[in-house]
Design a protein that fits this description.
Belongs to the bacterial solute-binding protein 2 family. By secondary structure, the protein is of the alpha/beta class. It is 37% helix and 17% strand. Helix 6 packs parallel to helix 7. The longest helix is centred in the middle third of the chain and has 16 residues. It starts with 18 loop residues before the first helix and ends in a 6-residue tail after the last helix. The N terminus is likely disordered.
């Protein structure tokens, strides 16, 4: 599934990330208005008890929800908007075709929505339509996959792919720090995506801190259950002995775990990525190789709605001294294991 201004990103799915609960806590109150009612996941965060502000129409445009993480992005946006009596959410059908998504955003611009939230199928390809909205006086909240220029958005919010790999590497490093000649392998995502390269770089940089650990194999999959199973089967056949696996994506991790079960292997620990409900449940059950997952939080879409509402109402972010919302918000890639999985269970996506 994604580029911060520091680590720009794209994503087929952008994928699979929450620490959004902690990283976006200050955003929940940024609009200083009263929510309608309480819903799960990102909406477990507190909202201000002040009276509603002026009515805001938010246009929301994202890619096609062809992946669990992307579907969770849409759900989080809808649920967050539904909390507020002063918000109307105009949501597009979503498309991975850039021309079609541009057309959908232009329709929202023509409707004169108050603010736009855009998760582009391709940040570079959609930069011009972001610029068009900004020039029309419609502020843009750029969600995760970043536009080519900051002139195309007022605020960027998204995940940290480098941080995912870094935290996965340190988690594995701490688990194996006392093991001599430890061996690890990596099941990456699509290698043509910048986000995949960032996750691998973060992982490799973390492992430099553990001289007893060597990465002995890496295989790229395609963020799907089928590819995860096929590529993991190849890794298992080629590597009869290793101590840990870093898998970039919990969706492809479902397939990877099938391959592990079919091979009858239980002699290593596995760390996943993104924060799927199935991964949380497996971690809680603790009867297999999956011991942790590193978040890439889809709750960022809920926070994007908060930011959009604040922008349209001329408010800042609660908890910060500034009168304006930040120019960018990078979410933290928390590691979820058996010790804290209960805290994050409600944020898991299907």
């Amino acid at each position: 599934m994604p580029l911060s201004p520091q680590h720009a990103t794209t994503r087929r799915g952008l994928l699979l990330g929450t620490a959004a609960v902690s990283a976006t806590a200050f955003l929940a109150g940024c609009t200083s208005n009263e929510p309608k009612d309480k819903t799960p996941a990102a909406d477990d965060r507190p909202a201000s008890a002040d009276t509603p502000g002026k009515h805001v129409t938010i246009g929301f445009a994202g890619p096609q929800a062809d992946h669990g993480w992307l579907n969770a992005i849409n759900d989080n946006a809808k649920k967050r908007a539904a909390r507020y009596s002063d918000v109307t959410l105009e949501i597009t059908e979503g498309s991975n075709d850039t021309a079609q998504q541009i057309g959908q955003i232009e329709t929202l611009i023509n409707k004169k929505v108050d603010v736009l939230v855009v998760l582009p199928a391709d940040g570079k390809a959609l930069t011009q339509v972001g610029l068009k909205a900004m020039r029309a006086g419609i502020p843009v909240v750029n969600l995760d996959r970043i536009f080519d220029t900051p002139q195309a958005y007022r605020c960027w919010i998204g995940g940290d792919n480098y941080g995912m790999g870094l935290n996965a590497g340190h988690y594995i490093g701490r688990k194996l720090k006392d093991k001599t000649d430890a061996r690890v392998i990596e099941l990456a995502g699509l290698d043509n995506l910048e986000l995949t390269r960032q996750r691998t770089q973060g992982f490799d940089d973390a492992l430099k801190n553990y001289p007893n650990i060597k990465k002995v194999a890496r295989q790229a999959a395609e963020f799907t259950v089928e590819s995860g199973q096929a590529k993991m089967a190849q890794l298992l056949q080629a590597q009869p002995k290793f101590d840990a696996l870093w898998n970039h994506d919990d969706d492809q991790g479902v397939g990877a775990l099938r391959a592990v079960e079919q091979a009858g292997r239980d002699d290593f620990l596995m760390v996943g990525g993104a924060g799927a409900l199935a991964a949380f449940q497996a971690i809680e059950k603790d009867d297999g190789v999956l011991k942790a997952t590193v978040l890439y939080p889809p709750t960022m879409a809920a926070s994007a709605v908060d930011l959009a509402r604040a922008l349209a109402q001329g408010k800042g972010a609660a908890g910060l001294a500034e009168h304006e919302i930040p120019a960018s918000v990078t979410l933290y890639s928390a590691v979820v294991d058996k010790t804290n999985v209960d805290q994050y269970m409600s944020t898991g996506f299907r």
